[in-house]
Amino acid sequence: MRLSLSQISLTAVVALGVILSTSWPSAEALPVGAINRRPHFSSTPLVARSAAALKSYDQHRVVRVNIQSEDQLKILTENEDSLHFDYFTHEKNIGGNIDIRLTPEDFVKFQSLNIGYTILIDNLQTILDQERDEDGQYQQKWENSKLNKVSMNGVAFPGNDDVFTNSQDWFSGYHSYEDHQTWLQTQIKKYATIASAFSAGKSFQNREQAGIKIGNGPNNVVFHGLQHSREWITGSVVEYLIDQLLRGTDSRVAGYLKKYTFHIIPIMNPDGFVITQSSDRMHRKNAQKNGECLGTDTNRNWNFHWNEGGASTDPCADSYMGPSAFSAPEAKNIGEYLKKLPNVVSYIDFHSYSQLWMTPYGFTGKRPDNYDTYLKPLAVGAVAALKAAGGTVFQAGDIYNTIYPASGSSVDYALSVGVGAPFAVELRDRGEFGFSLPANQIIPSGKEVWAAFTYILDNLKTK
Length: 463
Prior knowledge:
463 residues; Alpha-Beta Plaits; 2 domains; Aminopeptidase; alpha/beta; globular; eight-stranded mixed β-sheet; 13 helices
């Protein structure tokens, strides 16, 4: 979908109070062979915003295509730019499922391709309205708890304890960019003996890529969320891992803090995240201006086998790779940080959705030399630990052969500069809620990822 800059407002909006609800639209006649699959809802809090300030996705559909042949894949690839596909998932292989968002106009053209599909969401705006409505009560309680220094469950905070230190309250919903920064600084201040602040650099719009450093071990581990800004669950899960390292009850943590130093950035792409909260909930890229369109896909912009497939040259595409490698400061900053940091034994780039734990490479189907002996066993073990923790099933494998070709990606670059075990992780779910994962899944997601993460930490090759 092509976005003009006039359509994008970067003005921050705070809208607390009663928000008008909307109802499901009447069912439309579906083409023969299409299946109408309306999502059901549990609590899905998102940061309350003014509906008038947000880009509308009225009548935008999300369709799922199960690729049955090379011919189907070729047809999709040949039409993805002209039909402005917004790929929600990218499993571009025979037998794989691809989820695509389409405008009403492009949906009509898409039907003429004569490819079988399932309708996952028949009106995306209805889901976004539902998210905002359901979040109203949470946001009011959260704001009151900040003002009154009282937990959302009514328990008063003793002494100088801050509302931002109550994990149960914090992980009960999604939060504003400003509150995320306050939360991070609160943890750093409270746990100053084991934690400190750092920044990987500044974004295109001059926001800090703010991070927390935990532990003092000789082996460095780097991870972050929200490289793709609409994937809100990733920032929350990264913060859950921070919470576990700082205050969790896992008896292994003290050993981890002696063995490792963790470099953690909850919001890798702060500009894009602000856009998702102020003007366009489905924005994926950063905030760089590219002609009439906005944003570079930072995860196609890393300086390793850049522009070798699996990325778009169209500035308006959601997978636009940028005019040159590391033209996006957000990617360049993290890349330089990784390159300069000694003995980085693991790097994890958290994404959503699809439930995958992946290794390099994305630019080629040829796997790294240590794939079978080291990288894949780590990924398989992480997936097994994750399933044991909560029953959620993830798939392990390399990027190229598991979901799609993707050149210029973060994990490929990380391996190229000597990182021992880099991973790209796609969190919950598999399309039922997609990028609008209910907040009541934050803690379950965090718990299962913590189990996988500890498996990785227990089995890395270290000094």
